[in-house]
Structure formats: C-alpha cells, structure tokens
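Q: Could you predict the 3D structure of ABC transporter domain-containing protein?
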Amino acid sequence: MAIVCNEVIKKYRNHKALKSMSFLIEEDKITGLIGRNGAGKSTLLKIVAGLQKATSGHVQIYGEQPFNNLKVASNLVFIEDTMSFSPIFNLGELFQMAKDFFPHWQDDLARKLLAYANISEKEYHHHLSKGQKSTFNLIYGLATRCKVTLLDEPMNGMDEAIRSDMYRAILKEYIAFPRTIIISSHHLHEIEHLTEDVLLINHGHVTLHAPLEDVKGLLVKLVGNITKIKESIPSAEIYYENESLVNGEVIVEATSIASRETELSQQGISIHPVSASEVCKYLTSQTRGGIDDVFK
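A: Sure. Here are the predicted structure tokens for ABC transporter domain-containing protein:
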C-alpha cells in the first residue's frame, strides 16, 4: 500500500479534527478526498504530508512515517492554495532550484505549462493573483513527478477555462507517469472524470471509501406517492425525503429495493439513479429534508 492510516487522531486543544481515522490507499491510483467544510480534509493531508504530527495513531508512506522524514519529503509533494515561496526568487528560478530537490523534476514540462497559462517566468509568486498562484502551484506539483502527490483544493481561484485545462494536465501527467494522487475537493462532480476511488470524510470520520463505480450505485431515488413509497420500504434507511403536491422523492440504499423494480413500478413508483456527487452529499447531510427542513 502507498498510504496507510491507522486509528489516526488529531486534537487541537479541546477540538478533535480527526477521530480514529483508518484507511488504505493503493499505489498509483487517483483518490478523490471529499468532504464538506471543516470535515478534516486539509488536516488529514498535512499529516500524510508530514507537515503535522498526529496526536495518536500511525501513518505510513511506503512503509515510512512521514513526519520530519527527508526520505518521504523527497518523494512527496503537497500542494495547497496557501503555500508560499521565497520572495527573492522569480518563478523561473524556483523551477531551477526544484531540480536539486526533486529527482524526477520535469523542467521543460513546467516551463511549457507556465507559458500556456500565460504567466511569465520573471514574475514573483507573491505578486501573482489568487488564480495564478493556484495555477503555478499545481504546475509545480505536477512537474515534481513525486510518487505521492497531494493536491488540496488545487483549483481554488482559477477561472473556468484554466480549471478545465489543469484537470486535463493532471490526467495526462498521470497517464505518462503513474503515481499516487489524492485530490481534495468539496465537489466530486468536478474531479469525477479523474477519480478511481472516493474517500469521503465527515466530522473527522471516514464515512465511505470505495471505488467510484461502487459509489455511483450506492443510492437510488424513488419518485411517487410518498405514503406508498414508505409503505413499500418500511425497514429501509432514508437519507433524504421531499414531499411535494404531485410526487414525493425518497433517497434510499439501492440494496433495499433489490429485485423489487417491477413491484414498485406497478405501484406507480419510479426508480432513478443518484450521481456519486449526490451520494456524498446525502451521506454527510445532517437532516433528511435538506435546506427545506429549515423552513418548516
């Protein structure tokens, strides 16, 4: 396994940011780390990157603990929108220095991507706009070709056109040089075309860790008379329900209606797929009615 987390806990005074978090990430896969604001995504990535130490539990990167470990640091890159570089060197010089630390550094690729993004090598990182900083940071991370690449909300601030291009750059680089990549995001739908596995966390816990295709088939939407729907699935766990004047909607696990499609159809209840992004939303929702519950 490329990354192993076992019972990882992170406390900040009286607050537990991570709560007994355990998971395994296979080598050379792209994993989408999904969660709402405050779920613990950034904290987890910083611990995996060796920038913070877990309060308890164990983390291993290719068999090595990452905290204060130069061997891990030379084979891992962590990209976040708050990262900074020395203000005395321009972007071209930052690329030049990267060669001395990252053994697989792709200097030509870095400079071509920067030129494509219309950012001058003579610019200084602290003078760039938010979107330009995010673009440079991502280019820097991809050009390292590190065995482990951690991208924390890498597209923050980018305009729509460059976001699309940078997602494609991630995919093309991964195909050219497979590596273990974790991309954190609030929005699975944005990275779904890249992601092989989904690691969904909520309030410091792992809620779901599964292949994307399994996530897509986890929940279904039932549409019809709300009373009939509930009578048909009395023991099913309901993740979301919405009763309207015409048809109600109920979200349940797909396994709860297995082999009952014809029976439900005869009762006027239709079955609809639920996207992977919506699955993540429903699994981390605090209410069954969503925002509508606030207005009841």
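Q: Anything worth pointing out?
A: Residues 43 and 119 are 30 Å apart (CA to CA).
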